[in-house]
Amino acid sequence: MMLKSNPMEFANFSKMYRLFLQTDSHLKSTYSISFEQYRIMAYILSLKQQEATVSEVGNHFGSSSPAISRKIRVLFNLHYIVDHADSHDRRVHWLNLTPEGKELTSTVADFLVEKIPNIETQVEELSKTDLNH
C-alpha cells in the first residue's frame, strides 16, 4: 500500500533541517560544540544543584549513557565540564560546569535567542507555503 503525502512536506522538512544544520555548524565552528552539547550544559545549569550524573543527563534527553558520555567527553576535554566522585558512592560521578562552561552556555544562549526568532519566522513562512499547496 502506497502512502499518499504532499511532496512539499518533505521539501519544507528539508529546509527546516537545513536551518538546524546551519545553526549547529555555526556553533561547531565558532564555539567547538554542537547544539546537543550546548543543551547538555544548559540542562545541567538549569538544575537547582547545577550538577547531574551521566545517566541523569541521558535519561533527560532519552539517550543512552554511552552516547551522552561521548558528547560529555568533548565538553570535558574542552574544560567546559568537570566531574567528581560522590562522597558516599565512588562509582557515581557528578558533572558540573566550569566557569568557562557557564560563560559559554550564556554566550550560546544569547546567540540562540537572537537567531531563533529568525528561524521561527522562516518556519512560519514554510508553513504558509505548505498550507497554500
Summarize the model shown:
It contains five helices and three strands, in the order ααβααββα. It is mainly alpha-helical and 133 residues long.
Describe the structure.
By secondary structure, the chain is mainly alpha-helical. The chain contains 5 helices and 3 strands. Helix 1 runs antiparallel to helix 5 and helix 2 (35-46) packs across helix 5 (99-131). The longest helix has 33 residues, at 99-131. The mean pLDDT is 86.
Number of strands: 3
Shape type: elongated
What's the alpha carbon Rg, rounded to whole Å?
19 Å
The parts where pLDDT drops under 50 for at least 5 residues are none
Backbone structural class: mainly alpha
Q: In this structure, how is the largest beta sheet organized?
A: 3 strands, antiparallel
- Following the backbone from N to C, one meets helices and strands in this order, namely HHEHHEEH
- Describe the strand arrangement of the main beta sheet, using strand numbers: 1-3-2
Give the key terms.
133 residues; mainly alpha; 3-stranded antiparallel beta sheet; 9% strand
Topology:
Elements: H1 7-31, H2 35-46, E1 52-53, H3 54-61, H4 65-77, E2 81-85, E3 93-97, H5 99-131
Antiparallel strand pairs: 1-3, 2-3
